[in-house]
């Protein structure tokens, strides 16, 4: 019997390693990987909803003619779970996201787009007018002062509540509410 964990291998005296053919891998070689769907999508063939985070066996390849600065762009091929149609998407390093290429439509995410639009609009408005900046600062400081006043009032009421009973605190709060009306 031979050893189970052999460290040395036998090489015959006439062995020539140059005669062994080398495996040449091309640049457009596809690699099999396991990945999760990076976004929610819908199959264009059968309409199957594919949620974000669904695991797939995929093929990954380097897109030969595209890159963002020096960052390579990769294309992924997956199959729909219901109809086995091929779905492709690729990386988008410029936007730090992915782009659905073929076989599926990305589900619309209104919260993301709306949030980005709102932030851009606010920045443009504040940059356009110095008066707007001044008004927004004064409004913010007024809100802070109101919050501080309300906080002081709560602290005073809590201090009184420790000295008085609950009924007395209720009466004081009702008085304050009547005064505000």
Shape: elongated
Mean pLDDT: 84
Q: N-to-C SSE series?
A: EEEEEEEEHHH
Distance between the termini: 99 Å
Radius of gyration: 33 Å
How many DSSP H or I helices? 3
Q: For the report, how would you describe the main beta sheet?
A: 5 strands, antiparallel
Helix-residue proportion: 25-40%
Q: Please identify the structural class as seen in this structure.
A: alpha+beta
Uncertain spans, ≥5 residues at pLDDT below 50?
none
Q: What share of residues are in beta strands? A: 25-35%
Side by side, the strands of the main sheet go: 1-4-5-6-7
Quick one: how many beta strands?
8
Question: What key phrases describe this protein's structure?
Answer:
about 180 residues; alpha+beta; five-stranded antiparallel beta sheet; three-stranded antiparallel beta sheet; elongated
3D architecture notes:
This protein is of the alpha+beta class. 38% of the residues lie in helices and 28% in strands. It has three helices and eight strands. Strands 1-4-5-6-7 form a five-stranded antiparallel beta sheet, with no helix packed on it. A hairpin with a 5-residue loop joins strand 2 and strand 3. The termini are far apart. The mean pLDDT is 84.
SSE arrangement:
Elements: E1 31-36, E2 41-43, E3 49-50, E4 55-68, E5 71-79, E6 86-92, E7 97-102, E8 104-106, H1 110-128, H2 130-163, H3 166-180
Antiparallel strand pairs: 1-4, 2-3, 2-8, 4-5, 5-6, 6-7
